[in-house]
């Protein structure tokens, strides 16, 4: 069985209790035109769907087959399909180069099924395979440039990817081209006044504080993602939002008072402009106190990560400093990232 066997089964025997389709290696699912896809192995699983390696029986091509949970297919599945169709119409062929492409979609036994091009390993898997050793800056520059292009294409159309992280960046097999994947969380900027999304380590401070959310949230997430490739571990690792904001402040600096004054959730984390005591915050919010040691002891600013005598390292961290600005209105844009000397340098 390719489906997770630890999840309880539903009474119908075709689904898990949480609505996932039960599939076995070699199972065949068919689209509306009679094209059959043979499921070969599981590639991944998320809150809303499972993804399988599939081979079509007509052209012998391999794809990533995303099968959305039964109770999410009518909303989440439909939204993702419509977003993909919208992107296909909005973006030029060049702009599509660094964003995963949908190859088809259909409904199977009530489940939304989305067929994507097959890609290589994601960046987290590559880090994990190499025991979380940092990547070299030459490789990071290529990845950085490709994903900044993807963000530029989305942001030009006022779309927020809303989930940049190493797991959502994959490369095309046998190439050095990287693509942004997992488009299911994309939101339109004008419809996103506030919300709570993006995996915690990559979540922009304005999201935590319920500040108005813009495409600048992607820039913060991208900076955290790229920093992790350079460090091997998350830049702002934390078990809760309070400790994460503290860690941000320790490395980036104090939060602007103007930003805090306009943040709806400022009183959840701050009192008179300063952080609420950690033990008090945990008691109020019924959270265990943070016991993990500092990931980067001795680091008090991003400049402390610069490798002395390495001009590429200095340029790299200079770019991240421009992305990791608390005030989203003052954060560098995707277009400006592509014009930064670290990206344009050929060294």
TrEMBL record:
Q: Per the database record, which ranges form the Protein kinase domain?
A: 37-343
DNA-binding as UniProt keyword: no
Record carries keyword Lipid biosynthesis: no
List the GO terms this entry assigns under cellular component, sorted alphabetically: cytoplasm
Q: Recall the GO molecular function terms of this protein's record.
A: ATP binding; protein serine/threonine kinase activity; protein tyrosine kinase activity
Extract the Pfam families matched here.
Answer: Pkinase
Q: Which residues bind ATP?
A: 66
UniProt keywords (A-Z) are: ATP-binding, Kinase, Nucleotide-binding, Serine/threonine-protein kinase, Transferase
Q: What PANTHER family does the record tag this protein with?
A: DUAL SPECIFICITY PROTEIN KINASE (PTHR24058), HOMEODOMAIN INTERACTING PROTEIN KINASE, ISOFORM D (PTHR24058:SF17)
Name it.
Answer: CMGC family protein kinase
């Amino acid at each position: 069985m390719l489906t997770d066997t630890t999840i309880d089964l539903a009474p119908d025997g075709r689904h898990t209790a949480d609505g996932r389709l039960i599939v076995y290696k070699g199972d065949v699912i068919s689209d509306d035109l009679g094209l059959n896809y043979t499921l070969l192995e599981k590639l991944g699983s998320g809150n809303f769907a499972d993804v399988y390696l599939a081979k079509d029986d007509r052209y012998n091509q391999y794809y990533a087959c995303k099968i959305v949970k039964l109770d999410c297919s009518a909303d989440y599945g439909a939204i993702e399909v419509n977003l993909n169709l919208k992107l296909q119409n909005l973006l030029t062929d060049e702009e599509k180069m660094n964003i995963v492409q949908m190859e088809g979609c259909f409904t199977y036994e009530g489940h939304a099924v989305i067929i994507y091009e097959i890609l290589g390993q994601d960046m987290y898997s590559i880090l994990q395979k190499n025991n979380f050793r940092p990547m070299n800056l030459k490789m990071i520059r290529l990845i950085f440039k490709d994903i900044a292009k993807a963000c530029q294409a989305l942001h030009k159309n006022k779309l927020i990817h809303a989930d940049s992280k190493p797991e959502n960046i994959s490369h095309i097999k046998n190439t050095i081209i990287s693509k942004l994947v997992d488009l299911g969380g994309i939101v339109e900027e004008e419809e996103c006044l506030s919300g709570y999304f993006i995996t915690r380590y990559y979540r922009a401070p304005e999201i935590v504080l319920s500040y108005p959310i813009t495409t600048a949230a992607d820039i913060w997430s991208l900076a955290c993602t790229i920093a992790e490739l350079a460090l091997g571990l998350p830049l702002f690792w934390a078990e809760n939002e309070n400790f994460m904001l503290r860690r941000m402040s320790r490395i980036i600096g104090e939060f602007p008072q103007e930003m805090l004054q306009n943040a709806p959730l400022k009183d959840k984390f701050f009192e008179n402009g300063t952080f609420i005591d950690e033990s008090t915050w945990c008691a109020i919010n019924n959270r265990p106190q943070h016991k993990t040691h500092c990931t980067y002891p001795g680091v008090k600013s991003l400049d402390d990560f610069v490798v002395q005598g390495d001009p590429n390292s200095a340029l790299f961290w200079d770019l991240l400093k421009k992305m990791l600005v608390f005030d989203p209105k003052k954060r560098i844009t995707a277009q400006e990232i592509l014009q930064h000397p670290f990206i344009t340098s050929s060294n």
